[in-house]
Design goal:
This protein has helices at about 1-15, 15-25, 30-50, 55, 75-85, 110-130, 130-145, 165-170, 185-210, 240-255, 265-280, 280-295, 320-330, 365-370, 385-390, 395-405, 415-430, 440-450, 450-455, 470-480, 480-489; strands at about 65, 90-95, 215-225, 255-265, 300, 335-340, 340-345, 350-355, 375, 410-415, 465. It is an alpha/beta fold. It folds into three domains: about 1-130 and about 290-375, 3-Layer(aba) Sandwich (Rossmann fold), CATH 3.40.50.300; about 130-280, no CATH class; about 385-489, Helicase, Ruva Protein, domain 3, CATH 1.10.8.60.
């Protein structure tokens, strides 16, 4: 455990704000102010851990409010940040929640979701640590099924063949021939029999490990892990009741096994998972998961502007301010009960985002505004930004589509003028209809390559070069018609 903590601390120390921004630049174009803000907020977590204990708990996280239109990178910044730090991360939409007393999800459930994510993350890491040992145990269990290693029976098999001869038939694929019953073996013969059975078992294990038995079907006993789904919404406290019901039902079902017939390949995966879970300490996982959720957790709340406003009314508007009031103690710092135990949110980092094209940040209740001290405004994306997005990031769309079609043997290349034309058309459609930012590129690219994607398996000419003329031919008629582009692009 100390070695793991040392490695974690070393990684955190190396993640300077400049390096965090550099890593985000690999996937997100522009938005320098937002990147710097989240980089500093993340670095402050490392700094807080190095403070004396009496001061450490007094330093609260600097939560962030991102303001900008859709499709400019708000969600992507938060998601990449979590992946960069291997921190528990969840993304939620504020519109999913309602004030306590109304039908819908209570805001406490976001902390339970974060804790579930943290638990799965830690469990996956621990299972990876024991993967090799679990794989060996899984092979042993499969060999036990193919060739039981129990006591030798006093009588012959109904087919007339001794047990070890049946195993020989399984290993070498030959049919066993019935034999007449033999007289009881002597002590020397018994030792030879045990030695032969051990040799046969070693040979069988080598074959299973090498994958030579992967297509053989066997019956195994697997744990019955299905838990009936129980979901209860409101009033306050009912979600905790639903959580307890699911936990209780899960405990009742735990340990029960049922037979399943599958190939050796499938059985090896199933049994390896079982063995890995048996090798790890569940209590230690829960302790670390709680620690990681409390100290490193990131909750991204999108569409926060949809609950901004304190006007009265009917329908969903009636609970807007109520959702803000319910959200406030979670962001301020409180303790939420989960099935893994209580989780404190005092040092969870909250990143809220919204377009605020109708409402304003000042429409939120003052207490909530005060808990989001860092505000960054993300810029709208233009033609030049689209050009860079298409080609520069590691996950650039041009690379994605080229790789997808390459699986069909199609070589897809884009000229510089084609990239420019795609960017121009995307910006044009955004200007003349709803501005959805970089998401417009996905729509335009799908329309552009729809025909070749459909015909790719049957194309005789597998080389396709996309230039500006090709782009105009496929898109200009649609992009030029504002009414048509609203529905297609």
């Amino acid at each position: 455990m100390s070695d793991e903590l040392t490695t974690t601390n070393r990684v955190r120390e190396e993640l300077t704000p400049a390096r965090i921004v550099d890593e985000l630049d690999k996937y997100i174009i522009g938005q320098g102010a937002a990147k710097r803000a989240v980089a500093v907020a993340l670095r402050n977590r490392y700094r807080r851990r190095r403070l004396p204990p009496e001061l450490r708990d007094e330093v609260i996280p600097k939560n962030i409010l991102m303001i900008g239109p859709t499709g400019v990178g708000k969600s992507e910044i938060a998601r990449r940040l979590a992946a960069l730090t291997a921190a528990p991360f969840i993304k939620i939409e504020a519109t999913k929640f309602t004030e306590v007393g109304y039908v819908g999800r209570d805001v406490d459930s976001v902390v339970r979701d974060l804790m579930q994510t943290s638990y799965r993350m830690v469990e996956s890491e621990r299972m990876a640590d024991v993967e090799a040992e679990a794989a060996e145990r899984a092979i042993d269990r499969i060999v036990d099924i193919l060739q039981p290693s129990g006591r030798r029976t006093s009588g012959p098999d109904p087919s007339g063949a001794p047990p070890f001869q049946l195993a020989l038939g399984s290993i070498f694929g030959g049919a066993t021939q019935p034999r007449k019953p033999e007289p009881p073996p002597s002590e020397q013969d018994d030792e030879k029999l045990i030695e032969r059975r051990a040799r046969i078992r070693r040979r069988l294990r080598e074959q299973v490990a090498a994958g030579l038995k992967d297509d053989e079907r066997i019956e195994i006993e697997v744990e019955h892990s299905h838990t009936p789904s129980v979901q209860v919404f409101s009033p306050q406290g009912m979600e905790e009741m639903a959580m307890d019901i699911q936990s209780t039902l899960g405990n009742l079902m735990h340990g029960r096994k049922k037979p399943r017939t599958m190939t050796v390949r499938e059985a090896r995966e199933v049994l390896q998972q079982e063995e890995a879970r048996a090798l790890i300490d569940q209590d230690a996982i829960i302790r670390e998961a709680v620690e990681r959720a409390e100290q490193d957790g990131i909750i991204f709340i999108d569409e926060i502007d949809k609950i901004a406003g304190r006007e009265g009314g009917a329908g969903p508007d009636v609970s807007r301010e109520g959702v803000q009031r319910d959200l406030l103690p979670i962001i301020e710092g409180s303790t939420v009960t989960t099935k893994y135990g209580p989780v404190k949110t005092d040092h969870v980092l909250f990143i809220c985002a919204g377009a605020f094209n109708v409402s304003k940040p000042s429409d939120m209740i003052p207490e909530l505004q005060g808990r989001l001290p860092i505000r960054v405004e993300l810029e709208s994306l233009g033609e030049e930004d689209f050009r860079r997005i298409l080609t520069e990031p590691k996950n650039a769309l041009v690379r994605q589509y080229s790789a997808l079609l390459a699986t069909e043997g199609v070589t897809l290349t884009f000229s510089d003028d084609a990239i420019g034309e795609i960017s121009r058309i995307s910006a044009q459609v955004n200007n003349q209809s709803e501005n959805i930012g970089a998401r417009r590129l996905h729509t335009v690219m799908e329309r552009l390559l729809e025909e070749v994607s459909f015909d790719a398996p049957d194309l005789a000419d597998k080389d396709l070069s996309v230039d500006a003329a090709y782009v105009r031919d496929k898109l200009e008629g649609i992009a030029g018609d504002s009414d048509l582009s609203r529905y297609i692009l």
